[in-house]
């Protein structure tokens, strides 16, 4: 099927694109969002997996921009990475998903990009984004950290991935902190993993597109460039702390938490998180 799609695309792109639009329109008549999600997960070549609040929206925006500019793919929302392969069958099928190890299937035929972030920063970001949901259970962010199960959930998830890193057909880990420190280098590494060839100019343009200033502008304006509901659109009335594009700081948790909450997280990470991620020691991570 993929070879036929590639042949048609090569011989007459307008016909390929017309058939694709017709197929997507037909699918919307009988396929639920859940079924669409499962189909894409099942057929994807690559899985971009991360826990929540690890910078996935930022990475997807830049990856989508790279694919759009490098391969001249129009009429596609940058957030839907899978859609690029529907417009150009020579592009890899990439499914971005929040998935704990083994939650939605196996990985024998998949290439996995695991995006992680320091659980301390991820938890602060998660609390602020969903503060209204936590208000009935925890009086403040420190109680959320000290009493809630979220820290253990992040650590357990990271550890399971490390233990099963040889399960997928291929596997790389990308740290949010490394993306902040060397965005170009990490995007270049991801592009190589996707077996694509992209010019430096395209990567730099994607980095500019994914800048904090531009992403915040897209969120405030409610731009349709990225999928609705991914960014907390709705104008200035949305509190800055509750936006998807909030601060993006590395180590920002130190500015917001009590000494008790920080000590609790430091001790838990040091005791339980595998050191390869580099979050429990002063040393950098080992590539996995």
Overview features:
52% helix; alpha/beta; 14 helices; 4-stranded parallel beta sheet; 288 residues
Q: Write down the Rg.
A: 20 Å
Could you estimate the helical fraction of the residues in percent?
40-55%
Spatial order of the strands in the main sheet? 2-1-3-4
Q: Which residue ranges are poorly predicted, with pLDDT under 50 across at least 5 consecutive positions?
A: 228-238
> Main sheet?
4 strands, parallel
In CATH, what is the homologous superfamily? Answer: P-loop containing nucleotide triphosphate hydrolases
Highest-level CATH class: Alpha Beta
What is the molecular shape?
elongated
Mean pLDDT: 87
Strand-helix topology:
Layout: H1 2-11, H2 13-30, H3 33-43, E1 46-49, H4 56-71, H5 81-87, E2 94-97, E3 111-116, H6 119-129, H7 131-134, H8 141-147, H9 150-163, E4 170-175, H10 176-181, H11 183-193, H12 200-209, H13 212-221, H14 259-272
Parallel strand pairs: 1-2, 1-3, 3-4
Structure description:
This protein is an alpha/beta fold. It has one domain (31-277): P-loop containing nucleotide triphosphate hydrolases (Rossmann fold), CATH 3.40.50. The protein has 14 helices and 4 strands. The protein is elongated. The model is unreliable at 228-238 (pLDDT under 50).
Short précis:
With 288 residues, the chain is of the alpha/beta class. Helices cover 52% and strands 7% of the residues.
């Amino acid at each position: 099927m993929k070879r036929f799609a590639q042949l048609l695309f090569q011989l007459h792109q307008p016909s390929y694109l017309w058939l694709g639009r017709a197929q997507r329109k037909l699918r919307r008549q009988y396929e639920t969002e859940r079924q669409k999600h499962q189909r894409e997960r099942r057929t994807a070549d690559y899985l971009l997996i991360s826990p929540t609040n690890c910078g996935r929206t930022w990475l997807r925006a830049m990856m989508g921009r790279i694919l759009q500019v490098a391969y001249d793919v129009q009429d596609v929302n940058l957030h839907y990475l899978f859609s690029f392969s529907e417009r150009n069958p020579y592009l890899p099928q990439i499914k971005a998903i929040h998935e704990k190890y083994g939650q939605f299937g196996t990985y024998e035929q998949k290439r996995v990009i695991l995006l992680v972030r320091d659980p301390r920063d991820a938890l602060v970001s998660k609390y602020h984004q969903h503060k209204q949901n936590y208000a009935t259970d925890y009086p403040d962010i420190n109680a959320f950290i000290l009493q809630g199960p979220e820290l253990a959930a992040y650590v357990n998830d990271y550890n399971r991935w490390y233990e099963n890193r040889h399960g997928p057909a291929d596997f790389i880990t990308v740290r949010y902190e490394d993306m902040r420190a060397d965005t170009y280098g990490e995007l270049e590494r991801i592009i190589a993993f996707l077996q694509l060839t992209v010019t430096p100019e395209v990567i730099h343009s994607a980095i500019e597109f994914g800048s904090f200033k531009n992403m915040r502008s897209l969120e405030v304006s409610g731009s349709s460039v990225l999928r609705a509901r991914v960014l907390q659109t709705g104008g200035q009335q949305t509190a800055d702390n509750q936006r998807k594009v909030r601060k993006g700081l590395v180590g920002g948790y130190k500015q917001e938490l009590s000494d008790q909450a920080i000590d609790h997280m430091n001790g838990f990470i040091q005791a339980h998180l595998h050191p390869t991620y580099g979050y429990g020691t002063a040393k950098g991570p080992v590539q996995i």
